[in-house]
Design brief:
The chain contains 18 helices and four strands. It is mostly helical. A hairpin with a 4-residue loop joins β2 and β3.
């Protein structure tokens, strides 16, 4: 696939609009998430846009430093709520992306990395204690946004050979191991939660649910373990864990007139009836839809040497990209819920695909995102749902090159 110049031009324009932290927030709607230390909605996330551009020679390191300084303003949290998307680990991820193989930010990186290791070890201790008690996990224990899959993504990128990286992977493997049947989990996976999809206890979900998504479900664990198998380190039983997750996801894979798809989550009633309403097919977003689940399945297929699995995942993405009614479900532009997330995931899948069919669909999807952004009346500047994330996806298609900063690691796409 060739670079798309108009995508790069729009990315340049959007980045210019976000060059100054003092004015960028003027774009944000009231009640936004402009927390400096948030990767999703704050300066730490927007810094990633400028970091990627600076690495490619299309931006300057002065702008990067300004945004990182804005993200580091005030006290950074390393408390219980710290995660890849919030607090010291979020800023560590951004600074590590900026540092690359250079000596930049090493003093700050050392402190942030130490804090992130401390956070991770504390979270690991709580997670193992929960498993020892035989209790069901909360999504925030293991997911990418708030949990250990996200912290593991940071460690795998920062220092794959560090003991803490192996420890996170070992926990995620343990997460997939069957718990005793006396705890009522017969036929349900060990990661089945006792809460609603919003992470809270709810009378609407008295028996909890099983979550497939990349944002809050087992999809992120599948992606991270698969990446570890592909890139190292080799952790005992990682392959077994990937296979266990795949067996469960295979059981619930659906087919309709468009093609294969996976539900975002299932309830106990659905599990008992072994029936999913076709109307529950999620929009093809990164968080719960094809953009996330198909990429996780492709990575698993590559890691296992399972070409049938890889081709099924690629077929699921291809048929989605060719279905206008599926694309019309993405009314937002961002990485999490919108077209940018689908575009970045599809590009990653196309670069690893067994056929060129996926790549052939990307110019049309790029045009779609361009049109959506052009017609927006108000643009939120943030990374996860706003302009910064859209600009990064457009930059990828505009250069047709893997991100030099590795920014999409925070989505576990690579």
């Amino acid at each position: 696939m060739k670079p798309i110049p108009q995508a790069l031009a729009l990315a340049d324009t959007l980045a210019a609009q976000l060059s100054d932290p003092h004015t960028a927030w003027d774009m944000a709607p009231p009640g936004g998430r402009a927390w400096p230390q948030s990767l999703a909605g704050g300066a730490a996330g927007i810094a990633l846009l400028h970091i990627e551009r600076a690495h490619c020679g299309r931006g300057d390191w002065g702008t990067v430093h300004t945004w990182l300084a804005s993200a580091a303003h005030g006290d950074l949290t390393a408390a219980a709520n710290a995660s890849l998307y919030m607090g010291a680990p979020a800023l560590a991820f951004a600074m590590n992306a900026a540092a690359g193989d250079t000596g930049r930010y090493q003093r700050a990186m050392t402190k942030l990395n130490d804090a992130t290791i401390t956070v991770t070890r504390r979270r690991l201790a709580h997670a193992h204690a929960r498993i020892d008690r035989g209790e069901a996990p909360a999504m925030k224990e293991f997911d990418v946004i708030r949990g250990l899959a996200g912290l593991g993504a940071y460690h795998l990128k920062r220092h794959p050979d560090h003991p803490v990286t192996a420890d996170v992977l070992a926990y995620l493997i343990r997460l997939t191991e069957p718990r005793p049947q006396e705890h009522g989990l017969h036929g349900l996976p060990a990661w089945w939660t006792s809460v609603a999809p919003n992470g809270e206890a709810s009378p609407d979900y008295p028996a909890g649910h099983g979550n497939f998504g990349m944002a809050h479900g087992i999809g992120s664990v599948l992606a991270l373990l698969s990446l570890s198998l592909l890139q190292g380190p080799a952790v005992p039983h990682a392959r077994d864990a990937v296979e266990r997750i795949c067996v469960w996801m295979d059981r619930w894979r659906q087919h309709d007139a468009t093609g294969p798809w996976w539900p975002g989550f299932i309830t106990l009633d659905q599990a008992r009836r072994h029936q999913i309403d076709p109307a529950l097919r999620p929009r093809p977003s990164w968080c719960y839809g094809i953009a996330g689940t198909a990429r996780a399945q492709q990575l698993a297929g590559m890691a296992l040497g399972d070409q049938d699995r890889q081709q099924t995942a690629e077929h699921a993405m291809l048929t989605t990209l060719q279905a206008p009614e599926q694309l019309d479900m993405l009314t937002e532009t961002g990485l999490c819920h919108g077209t940018a997330g689908l575009l970045q995931a599809a590009w990653r899948m196309a670069t690893d695909a067994t056929t060129p069919a996926l790549a052939a669909e990307l110019p049309r999807l790029t045009d779609r995102l361009t049109q959506q952004i052009t017609h927006l009346k108000q643009r939120d500047p943030e990374l996860l749902d706003g302009t910064a994330g859209s600009a990064l996806a457009l930059h990828t298609l505009g250069t047709n090159a893997a991100p030099e900063s590795g920014w999409d690691t925070f989505l576990l796409l690579a």
